[in-house]
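User: Run a structure prediction on this.
Assistant: Running it now.
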Amino acid sequence: MPRWILEAATNTATVTGALLDRAVALGDRILTALPSIAVTVVLAWIALRMLRSALRQTIRRVLERRGEAPREITVRLNTLASIIESATRFVVLIVAGMTILSTLGVPIGPLLASAGVAGLAIGLGAQSLIRDLIGGFFIVLEDQYHVGDVIQVNSANGPSGLVEQLTLRYTALRGLDGSYTIVPNGDIRTVTNLTKDWARAVIDVDIAYEEDLSKAIAVLQDVLASLDQDPEFAHAILEPGEILGVEALSPSHATVRLMVKTRPMEQWRVARTLRQRIKAAFDQAGITIPYPRNVTIVQPAAAEFPSPSQARQQPTQEHRA
C-alpha cells in the first residue's frame, strides 16, 4: 500500500478521534450543566411573563388617569405594550443566552466585545432610523396625534393633512387634494393638531362703512342663534357661537369676528354653513358686503388741469372691479 495513503488514513483517524473526544466532552458539559440551563430558561420565561403583565397594568393606569376613551386606551395600550415588550424580550433573551453559554464553558468576553463593535457600527450607520423610532415612540406615548387627526407639521408651509397611518418610523398624511405624504418621525419638530379634543370655527365678516354696524352685528347674532337651534348641527356644536366684536378697521370696511366651538373635524362644515347663511341674511337685510370699486373722473379737454372744486363738479362714473 502506498505510503501517502497510510499517512492520509492516519491523519483522518487522528482528526476523527479528536472530534469524538470533543463531542464527548461537550456532551458531558451539557449533561452537567443541564439543570442550570433548565433553571435559566424557566427564570427567563417567568421574567417575561411578569414583565408583560406589569407593563400592561402600568400603561393602562397611566392612560386611565389621563381620562381617555376606552377605545383609545385599548389601541394605545396594544401599541405601547408591543413596543416595550419587544425591547424587554430582546434583553431577557440575550442575558439568558449569555448565561447558558457561560454555563457550558464558552468564553463570552469575545462575544461581548464583538457585539459592542457591531452595535457601534450599526448605531453610526442607522442614526436617522433610530431617531425616527424614538420620535415615533414618544408620539404614541404622549398621544400627540393619532390616526384620523388633521395635523400641520413644522410650519405653515410644511406638510399637512389627515393622518392615515402612524408607525414608529413615519407618519403618512393625506392632503386635501389627495396627495399622500410620508413624514419621518425624526424630522417632526412641531405639530399643530387641528382636531385635538375640540375645534373652533373662526370667521371674519367685512362690513362697509356705509352700513349700520349695530344692525349688521344684530343680523350676525340672529344667524348664530338660528345655527344653534338647527337640529342638523346639534351634535357638531359644543357651545353657542359668540361675536367678539370689531377685529380690524381697514380703509374700506370694518371687520367683525365671530367664532363657534365645535367637535373635532366639524369646524370646517360649520364655517362654510355660517358664511352661506350670513350672505343670505345680509342680502335680506339690505346690508352690502364691501367689494373693490374703481372711480373714473372725466376731465375736460382743457389745457389746464382743473382745480379740485372744479373736478368735484365733473360727472363721475363708478365701475365695479
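The longest strand covers residues 199-208.
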